[in-house]
Specification:
Its main location: cytoplasm. Pfam families: CS, Siah-Interact_N. It is found in: Cytoplasm; Nucleus. This is Calcyclin-binding protein. The chain is 37% helix and 18% strand. The chain contains five helices and eight strands; from the N terminus they run H-H-E-E-E-E-E-E-E-E-H-H-H. The strands form two sheets. The chain has a four-stranded mixed β-sheet with strand order 1-6-5-4, with no helix packed on it. Strand 2 and strand 3 form a beta hairpin. Helix 1 runs antiparallel to helix 2 and helix 3 runs antiparallel to helix 4. The termini are far apart.
Length: 247
Amino acid sequence: MAEDDHYDADLEELQALLAAAKRPRVQAVLRQEIETLKKSREAATEEHAATSEAGTALEPMETEAHPPPVKEPEIALQPLQKTVTPLSVQYTTLDRFSYDQELDKLKIYIFLEESSQDKVEASFKNNSFDVKIHDVGGKNYRCAVPRLHKAIVPESCSVVVKPKRIIINLRKAEKNTWSDIHYKEDKFKTPKPSEDKDPMAGIMDLMKNLYEEGDDDMKRTIAKAWSESRSGKTSDSKFGGDLSDSF
């Protein structure tokens, strides 16, 4: 090893100096140094040997096989059951919209931006529809007609979402033109004349009905027609007198 070569070189040089020395004192110092150096070399050699033996003895311990750790059995944890109470959803009513129609279909246009098809929930029935639009700018909207003017075909109706508007497509059950989307009763129904009733009394009932249900223009028109029809009649006639009194 490199350290042994160092000791050998030192001993060789000291021995050469001893051979060349002539004075006894110098020779004694050199001999003492040579003995000291030999002892140092022997001690270093023994230490190196002990270290090597210890390293060899430790090698089997490092490579000793260890038993695998005992794996604890896994316990499946059951998820906690959470009870969630649904909050009531608040909707903003969309009661202003436009529409156009053909004989067999009708389209309703809702002008609403930032919506998407997956946020729309629609329900169609024979005489109504209910369309809900969720999470549009943090709000929910609803457009519904509880009773349509006439019947539709629910399975043929749909909702289409466009970038700036939503279109509700309604398929009419019968081909015709709707006067309105909402159902409205006909206020001016012509009464059926009774067989045992005086025909003139039937006309009176019809005019009375029109007079009571009509607006101011209608009342003036009926009053004028009544006034003209009674021209030449006697005052004791059953058609005499003021129209409002007759009615």
